[in-house]
UniProtKB/TrEMBL annotation:
Amino-acid biosynthesis recorded as keyword: no
Residue ranges occupied by any AFP-like domain in the UniProt entry: 294-353
Keyword tags: Transferase
Pfam families assigned: NeuB, SAF
E.C. no: 2.5.1.57
Example GO BP: carbohydrate derivative biosynthetic process
Protein name: N-acetylneuraminate-9-phosphate synthase
Native source species: Zosterops hypoxanthus
Reactions accelerated catalytically: aldehydo-N-acetyl-D-mannosamine 6-phosphate + phosphoenolpyruvate + H2O = N-acetylneuraminate 9-phosphate + phosphate
InterPro entries membership: AFP_Neu5c_C_sf, Aldolase_TIM, PseI-like, PseI/NeuA/B-like_N, SAF, SAF_AFP_Neu5Ac, SAF_PseI/NeuA/NeuB
Encoding gene, per UniProt annotation: Nans
GO MF terms held by the record: N-acylneuraminate-9-phosphate synthase activity
C-alpha cells in the first residue's frame, strides 16, 4: 500500500485516506479579486479540500520575445501575450489576501509555482504544499530547488514519458520523500481516448511507495470518479463559475453544480470500495432469509438410510436447513428419523453431523 504523508496540516493522503480533492481555479478568475474569492467560496461549499491558483513571476517564466509577441486570440486580455498574462496575474499582496480569505472560511489554499521565483514567493506565503505543473515536471533544476524547500509536493505528469517520471522520482525522493504523482494529459478539453487511466495502475506499480493521483482536463465527472475507483488519492479538476467566459481553460472546467456532484460521487465511491473480504453481510440477512435455499429431500428417506446425491435437491425451504454448499458433505451421512419427500434436511435429522466452518 502506498505510504501516507501529511499534505496539509491535519490532512494526510495515501493509504486508506480519502481522496484529496483540489479545485484548480488557476486563472479562471479573469484577473478579478472578487471573482477569485467567490471561486474559493464555491470550492469550499462544493466540498473540495483545497482551492488552488497559478502563480507566475512573468519575467522569470517567459523571455522578452514571448511576452512581446502579439496575442490575437479570442481569449486575449491584451494586445501582447505579456499584457494578457499581466491582466490575469495577482500581486503578492492580493495572494496574501486570498490565502487569508481561504483560511477564514476553512479551506486549504495553494498555487502552482510556475517558475522558481514564484516558488520562492509561495514558500514565503507558507502554502501547505507545492503543486508542480506539468510544464515544469521535466525542469530538473526547478524540481531540485522546490524539493529542498521541504514542503510536500504534488507533481503532474502531462507531456512526460515514463522514463522522465522515473528520473523525477530519482531526483525528488532522496531530497523530499513527501510527494505524489498525478496522471495527466495536457489537452483542453481532453478527449476520453487520450485520458489513459491505466497509467494510474502503471504508476502504482512503478512507484509503490508514493501516493498516485489524477489531474483531469476532460468534460464531465465520470472519468475522474473512475480514477478514484482505481486508487487515485489526489484529484485535481479545473473549476469555473461560467464555462462561457473568456479563457481557454473554462471549457475544460467544472461549474459549481458539477464540482458538487463530483465530490459527492467520489465520497460515495469511497464508501462503496469497502472491504476485500467476501462474506455474508448483515445487510444481506433479510434477503438470505427470504430467498436463500436449503437442501431438501427429493424423495422420502427412511430412518437409518445413508444419504446419496439422488435423494437430495435444493429449494427455498421452510424451515431453513443445510445450505446448498453442504449438499456434497451430506452424501454418506446416516439419517436418524424418517424424512418426508420435499422436507428440509436439518441438523436434527442427520447423525453425528459436524458443521464445516466457512472460510
Amino acid at each position: 500500500m502506498a505510504r501516507e504523508f501529511e499534505l496539509c496540516p491535519g490532512r494526510r493522503v495515501g493509504g486508506d485516506q480519502p481522496c484529496f480533492i483540489i479545485a484548480e481555479i488557476g486563472q479562471n478568475h479573469q484577473g478579478d479579486l472578487d471573482i477569485a474569492k467567490r471561486m474559493i467560496r464555491m470550492a469550499k461549499d462544493c466540498g473540495a479540500d483545497c482551492a488552488k491558483f497559478q502563480k507566475s513571476e512573468l519575467e522569470y517564466k517567459f523571455n522578452k520575445k514571448a511576452l512581446e509577441r502579439p496575442y490575437t486570440s479570442k481569449h486575449s486580455w491584451g494586445k501582447t501575450y505579456g499584457e494578457h498574462k499581466r491582466h490575469l496575474e495577482f500581486s503578492h499582496d492580493q495572494y496574501r489576501e486570498l490565502k487569508k480569505y481561504a483560511e477564514e472560511i476553512g479551506i486549504f489554499f495553494t498555487a502552482s509555482g510556475m517558475d522558481e521565483m514564484a516558488v520562492e514567493f509561495l514558500h514565503e506565503l507558507d502554502v501547505p504544499f507545492f503543486k508542480v505543473g506539468s510544464g515544469d515536471t521535466n525542469n530538473f533544476p526547478y524540481l531540485e530547488k522546490t524539493a529542498k524547500k521541504g514542503r510536500p509536493m504534488v507533481i503532474s505528469s502531462g507531456m512526460q514519458s515514463m522514463n522522465t517520471m522515473h528520473q523525477v522520482y530519482q531526483i525528488v525522493k532522496p531530497i523530499n520523500p513527501n510527494f505524489c504523482f498525478l496522471q495527466c494529459t495536457s489537452a483542453y478539453p481532453l478527449q476520453p481516448e487520450d485520458v489513459n487511466l491505466r497509467v494510474i495502475s502503471a504508476y502504482q506499480s512503478a512507484f509503490p511507495d508514493i501516493p498516485i493521483g489524477y489531474s483531469g482536463h476532460e468534460t464531465g465527472i465520470a472519468i475522474s470518479v473512475a480514477a478514484v475507483a482505481m486508487g487515485a488519492k489526489v484529484l485535481e479538476r479545473h473549476v469555473t463559475l461560467d464555462k462561457t467566459w473568456k479563457g481557454s481553460d473554462h471549457q475544460a472546467s467544472l461549474e459549481p453544480n458539477e464540482l458538487a456532484e463530483l465530490v459527492k460521487a467520489i465520497r460515495t465511491v469511497e464508501k462503496a470500495m469497502g472491504s476485500p473480504i467476501k462474506q455474508l453481510l448483515p445487510c444481506e440477512m433479510a434477503c438470505n432469509e427470504k430467498l436463500g435455499k436449503s437442501v431438501v429431500a427429493k424423495v422420502a428417506i427412511p430412518e437409518g438410510a445413508i444419504l446419496t446425491l439422488d435423494m437430495l435437491t435444493v429449494k427455498v425451504g421452510e424451515p431453513k436447513g443445510f445450505p446448498p454448499e453442504s449438499i456434497f458433505d451430506l452424501v454418506g451421512q446416516k439419517v436418524k428419523k424418517n424424512i418426508e419427500e420435499d422436507e428440509t434436511i436439518t441438523e436434527q435429522v442427520v447423525e453425528n453431523h459436524v458443521k464445516k466452518v466457512k472460510c
